Amino acid sequence: MTVRDGMQTLIDTVRAYANAGTAEWTIETDSSYKSYWDDEEIQRVLDRHRADIVHYEMDPIQSYSAGSVVYLSYDLGYGSIESGTAVFKIEDVDGTISGWTMDYTRGLATFTTDTKGSTYYWTGSTYDLYGAAADIWMIKAANVAKMFDFSTDGHSIKRSDLRRSYLDMATYYKNMSPGGAVQSVKIIRSDV
User: Fold this and answer.
1) What SS3 class is residue 6?
2) In terms of C-beta density within 10 A (0-12 exposed, 13-18 middle, 19 or more buried), how is residue 95 classed?
3) Strand partners, 110
4) Rounded Cα–Cα distance for residues 129 and 45 (Å)
5) Against a cut of 0.85, is the pTM above it?
6) What are 126's strand-pairing partners?
7) Bridge pairing between strands 68-75 and 108-111
8) Does an H or E element contain 35, and which?
9) Which helix (H) or strand (E) holds 74?
């Protein structure tokens, strides 16, 4: 598998969240070796945290120019989007349109001319970067679980602290993930 165009920024962000070097450890597979964490491996983890969005209505953002209301920007409702025309498109009811630039990280489309608040839709893939980082921290914890504490010559080496630290980081990112944190909702009865 090769890294898809449009994934590098997402991969680099998750690599930073998870403090994942390109060759932290190696495992043997079918007379070859696999290094963790190359870009392909991080992409595999990201793909487990992908949501494919199809024809989702964008929200126009009202702004002002020379005292008049204009609509140049649209909020997609999602961030951390895979970039590139092969996987991402903006369209109206008649089909794909042009004349826009995209901030894939924030999920913000900017048009070159006033759209007058027209309805536009987007199709693409968005990713839960925090969920992916939590997974990587969990896998890293599993890898160091084989380490043990020992004492020698008056020194005490606590290598198990590394595993505990990795699990703490996994919990931290899982709690930041939209799908990982415990959430509550206030429900009000209208019939009382």
Assistant:
1) coil
2) exposed
3) 73, 101
4) 10
5) no
6) 51, 81
7) antiparallel
8) strand 32-36
9) strand 68-75
